[in-house]
Write a structure and sequence with these properties.
Blueprint: H1 2-16, H2 20-92, E1 96-97, E2 100-101, H3 110-139, H4 142-176, H5 184-189, H6 193-197, H7 204-258, H8 260-265
Antiparallel strand pairs: 1-2
Helix pairs in contact: 2-3, 2-7, 3-4, 4-7
Length: 266
């Protein structure tokens, strides 16, 4: 009787204890839970990084396109102003009215000519960059994006140098000839009986105003190029975040590959 009771107690005791199969199921469920939690965590992190990268990418493209459009328009304005100024100068340089000459005999126009050439180069560069940016937005090609970036860097360096030369030549020529006034800008801005003598033939005030706006646009071009440099620096920062996103994507793929058996079971 006692043996039967002991046997019954042992059987019931063994019944209450978990078997090895139950322990395996619990471990498996725990692994599934950890896998799901880790997977969700990585997916949320990837989602945040993707949205951040997409936002940075959009801002960089909008800023680049906006600045290039501004540079293109400003360069076109300068091109038109300088071309008109040189056309007036060349058409009236030998004009006389009594004792007055429309322009001095030793007048030089190289600052305006340099401005015209720089504006033409700037228009061409900005047009090429705008076409490349449009192609990148349309086709989303990394190769075209690289080409556009290279042209942007070239335009940035060339723009800073060339427009600095333009502003320097225009300003220094005016300072140098403050009393002689043999450059187009200084000569056209001077008032006196000479201007009155050619009032019906040459609008010196308009030529002077065009030269003023040419100088202002040149300064604006330098400012825009400096802003373009800031956009390029932000683009480099975006490349860092993009690299971080690529690393997280690779980690996610590696994690899913390492837990293939759990993925298949799910």
């Amino acid at each position: 009787m006692e043996d039967a009771d002991n046997r019954e107690f042992k059987d019931s005791d063994g019944f209450l204890q978990p078997t090895y199969g139950d322990l395996d199921d619990q471990r498996q469920q725990a692994n599934y839970g950890h896998f799901d939690y880790r997977k969700q965590q990585m997916e949320d992190n990837l989602r945040v990084l993707s949205e951040t990268d997409r936002r940075h990418k959009s801002r960089v493209r909008i800023a680049r396109a906006g600045l290039r459009i501004f540079n293109f328009m400003c360069s076109t304005v300068v091109l038109g102003l300088t071309a008109t100024t040189l056309a007036v100068f060349n058409a009236t340089r030998d004009l006389t009215a009594g004792p007055f000459h429309a322009w001095p005999a030793d007048a030089y126009s190289w600052p305006t000519t340099v401005t015209l050439v720089v504006a033409a180069v700037s228009v061409a560069l900005n047009l090429v960059i705008l076409v490349l940016l449009a192609a990148v937005s349309w086709r989303s090609s990394s190769r075209l994006d690289t080409v556009a970036t290279v042209f942007s860097v070239i335009s940035f360096v060339a723009g800073i140098i060339l427009w600095s030369v333009v502003t320097g030549s225009l300003k220094l020529s005016g300072l140098k000839d403050e009393f002689a006034g043999t450059d187009i800008w200084t000569w056209s801005c001077r008032e006196g009986p000479r201007r009155d003598a050619f009032e019906g033939e040459i609008d010196f005030q308009r030529v002077c105003l065009q030269s003023d706006w040419t100088f202002i646009c040149a300064i604006l071009q330098i400012s825009a190029e400096l802003l373009s440099g800031g956009v390029m620096l932000f683009g480099l920062y975006r490349r860092v975040t993009k690299k971080k996103l690529s690393t997280e994507e690779q980690n996610y793929r590696d994690y899913m590959r390492a837990n293939t058996h759990i993925v298949k079971d799910n």
